[in-house]
């Protein structure tokens, strides 16, 4: 069996606290984020690229990749709109990559043909998205010929039919090394119905039936080989408040939407079977949740991550990604991923 990938999204704080033990458990490090600034140039909030030298000394096989985009970061519809703008974007991105001694590019355009995050979009994004990826792959190949090195190109993709509807994934995947399915935030910020936000399987009785398993099937049906897919784990939670004390808070119409909740560091310290919160397990969805009588929290833990790893191996997927390394100072979730992917 081929070695499975463990792709970790990381920000500045994460780079500062990365340990040798953790670096050896990760295969790909996605540095978040690089985006367009007000001058229309690529810029990054991360200032600790020099730390990568030490991390790569610990794990010479690790690939460091810059992630371009993220929620509410725009400019990509415009960049993809013409052949000239696509080539300019690709050239600038590769120059940024080389400047910081990185191994590839990851495009997190959220989302083509859609302005939900407050960015500009166009119906032409569907075709232009593929053309932008081709331009990026061509520029990476040119740089690779100069450096005698292969540079990677990946994307993070929304894990539902809207994403395959707004893109031509069967064509786009030809230019990509792998596709990371964001199988977290499957519900939350837009829903007042409590439930799982990072479940492996679709739960019973839930009108929002999307899951990691469903996402994989959607992308395979759209023409993406299973061996190019990674599914996501969440090192943070979604939390609903003003929840009716019925059915342990599960599938209840709440007084709030599912906002971002505590990260796993805080969950482990203050919430899981503590301070009035009780952990419950959904054996159909393979997902845990917490309830204290009025607040419902959906999250990933060591057990749910184990099932995701088993799914990756059983279905010949490329591996697992997670958001966000910075969010678990206990190291428990990464340890579970590393242990169970290799088992």
Automatic annotation (TrEMBL):
Keyword set includes Glycosyltransferase: no
InterPro entries, A to Z: Chitinase_II/V-like_cat (IPR011583), Chitinase_insertion_sf (IPR029070), GH (IPR017853), Glyco_hydro18_cat (IPR001223), Glyco_hydro_18_chit_AS (IPR001579), Glycosyl_Hydrlase_18 (IPR050314)
GO molecular function, one term: hydrolase activity
Top-rank taxon: Bacteria
EC annotation from Swiss-Prot or TrEMBL: 3.2.1.14
Key words of the record: Carbohydrate metabolism, Chitin degradation, Glycosidase, Hydrolase, Polysaccharide degradation
Pfam family membership, one: Glyco_hydro_18
Reactions that this protein is recorded to catalyse: Random endo-hydrolysis of N-acetyl-beta-D-glucosaminide (1->4)-beta-linkages in chitin and chitodextrins
Domain GH18 residue range list: 4-343
Assigned protein family: Belongs to the glycosyl hydrolase 18 family.
Name of the protein described by the UniProt record: chitinase
């Amino acid at each position: 069996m081929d070695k499975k990938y463990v792709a970790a999204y990381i920000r500045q704080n994460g780079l500062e606290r990365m340990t040798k033990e953790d670096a050896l458990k990760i295969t790909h490090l996605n540095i978040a984020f690089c985006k367009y600034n007000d001058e229309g140039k690529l810029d990054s909030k991360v200032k600790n690229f020099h730390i990568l030298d030490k991390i790569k000394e610990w794990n010479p096989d690790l690939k460091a990749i810059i992630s371009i985009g993220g929620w509410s970061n725009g400019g990509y519809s415009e960049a993809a709109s013409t052949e000239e703008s696509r080539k300019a974007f690709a050239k600038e991105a590769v120059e940024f990559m080389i400047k910081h001694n990185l191994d590839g590019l990851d495009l997190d355009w959220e989302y083509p043909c859609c302005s939900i995050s407050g960015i500009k979009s166009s119906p032409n994004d569907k075709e232009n998205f593929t053309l932008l990826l081709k331009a990026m792959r061509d520029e990476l190949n040119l740089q690779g010929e100069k450096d005698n090195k292969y540079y990677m190109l990946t994307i993070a993709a929304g894990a539902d039919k809207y994403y395959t509807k707004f893109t031509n994934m069967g064509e786009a995947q030809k230019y990509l090394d792998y596709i990371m399915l964001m199988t977290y935030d499957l519900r939350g910020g837009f829903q007042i119905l409590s439930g799982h936000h990072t479940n492996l399987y679709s739960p019973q009785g839930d009108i929002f039936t999307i899951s990691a398993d469903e996402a994989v099937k959607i992308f395979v049906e759209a023409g993406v080989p299973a061996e190019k897919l990674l599914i996501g784990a969440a090192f943070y939670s979604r939390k609903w408040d003003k929840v009716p004390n019925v059915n342990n808070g599960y599938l209840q119409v709440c007084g709030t939407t599912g906002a971002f909740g505590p990260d796993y560091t805080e969950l482990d310290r203050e919430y899981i079977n503590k301070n009035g919160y009780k952990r419950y397990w959904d054996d159909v969805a393979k997902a845990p949740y917490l309830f204290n009588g009025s607040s419902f929290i959906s999250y990933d833990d060591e057990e749910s991550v184990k099932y995701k790893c088993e799914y990756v191996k059983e279905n010949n997927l490329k591996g697992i990604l997670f958001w966000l390394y910075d969010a678990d100072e206990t190291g428990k979730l990464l340890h579970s991923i590393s242990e169970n992917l290799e088992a």
